[in-house]
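Entry type: protein chain
Record version: 2
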Amino acid sequence: MFTAVATRAVFSFLGFPDWAPLHLYLGEGGYPAAAALRLAAASTDSAAMDLGAAGLVAGFLRCQRQGEPVPSPVDCAECDFRYLIVYRPGGTWPLRISAWGRELEVPGWKRRCGPMPMEAFLRRFHPCRPLQKQRTQEAWSA
């Protein structure tokens, strides 16, 4: 798999059918390449993906059992990265992601990427390019 670097992250999932907003704290491996690996693993969890759009959240939870739910990303002041994954059926990008990172010199968050389609994020940050064929955006529009 990958060697986890102690970079903390919070992943927020919004707009997914049958799910309230979910914010999940992970204490290590939060840098963008690791986030892409985590999201790719979730997107290929066949049991979860049978659930349609909600399957990405279910797959992420199944693959990231060490994650801790938090009430809000604001509660993760010590995080190094923050990811916002939004599902909006009928939108230009039904599944999109934005990412922010902490700057050492300046307090607060700096946008690292996005909003962008999830597939574009995976192509950009996944360390094993080219990616094996992932489930496409259409798979999440069910």
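Comment: Strands lie at 9-14, 22-26, 68-70, 81-87, 95-102, 109-117.
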